[in-house]
Amino acid sequence: MLRYLQVLVGADAEDVASETWLHIVKDLHTFRGDSNGFRRWTITIARHRALDHLRHHQRRPSVATPVETLADLPDREVTEDQAMQLVSTSEAMALIASLPPDQAEAILLRVVIGLDAESSAKVLGKRAGAVRTAAYRGLRRLSEALGQHIPGTEE
User: Fold this and answer.
1) What pTM did the predictor assign?
2) Percent over 70 (pLDDT), the chain
């Protein structure tokens, strides 16, 4: 969910994820369904929180924090492997974020989160075929950008 939110809201993804989890915990007693339904419900809530966040920040742009205030924050120890994984994940998310929004969301929901086309369609308020098409087109664009062949993207 955090990666999905990073594409939607950028650096504010953790804040939106926190709001999402608060909403989920508050309404958990109303949920009925299986694990796939829970993922769909969770991502739908996350998407709504992200859209609310974006609307809020369009009305009230945020002010950047001066670098001096960050100087006294504690440093987190990061191993080389974790750093390399973070870089490759960040690069992948940046590539996905460079796609048109409908394609980026379709890929995130289908590939990163693992929802099926029908569940993704319910989250996005679209038809399953439209989600499959957007994911297909997005994967083709990514494969072209990477200069690689991705199975299932041939015509």
Assistant:
1) 0.57
2) 77
Length of the chain equals: 155
**Burial of 80 per CB tally in 10 Å (0-12, 13-18, 19+):** exposed
- Total tally of structural domains belonging to the chain: 1
Per residue in 79-118, pLDDT (tens digit) is 545 555 555 777 778 888 889 999 999 988 888 888 899 9
Structural domain that includes position 11: 2-62+92-146
Helix (H) or strand (E) holding 49: helix 35-59
HSE value, Cβ hemisphere, 13 Å, CA-based, for 110 = 23
First-to-last alpha carbon distance for the chain, in angstroms, is 31
CA-CA distances (angstroms) from residue 30 to 20, 23, 86?
Answer: 15, 11, 36
From the list 29, 52, 7, 36, the residue with the least C-alpha distance to 119 is: 36
Q: Within a 10 A sphere around the Cβ of 97, how many other Cβ atoms? A: 14
Residue 145 CB: number of other CB atoms within 10 A? 11
